[in-house]
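Data availability excerpt. The first of two example chains:
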Amino acid sequence: MKHIVTVQDAVTAFADFMEPTNAELEAIEQEMPVILADVDLLDAHIATLDRAPSELDERRIRRARRRALAVRVTLVNHAAGASVSGGAA
């Protein structure tokens, strides 16, 4: 009889190395407002998939779209400010 060997030990042997680094966790934390705003926008769109959007639905989608854009602009401006080194010449 031939024994079947699993590769679980080989796969889980590297589990410690597959964890995100502190820098990756920090990047996720900085992008979390963008992620949450996108989730709100998707929720607004999903709510209207099976029916025609009402005026309230359209307002909710517009509000979520504006919020997602504003959060993205804030993140980009923050990243641009952090990448500028030194002062004015």
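And the second chain:
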Amino acid sequence: MTDAVKGPASYFPAIEKKYGRPVAEWKDLIRSSPLTRHMELVNWLKAEHGLGHVHANALVAHTLAE
């Protein structure tokens, strides 16, 4: 029996499918941004890269938690 993925990572398959980039690329993009605050990064992903709020939030939360 496998445990279901929970939390922000549960959105990763949908993010990759919808936006055509692997999660690793999105995370690298977030890390390379001069922005550091959670909502700044979320708003930047939405405005500059066309991500929806939930997907941007999941990527930022997961990346900043590392």
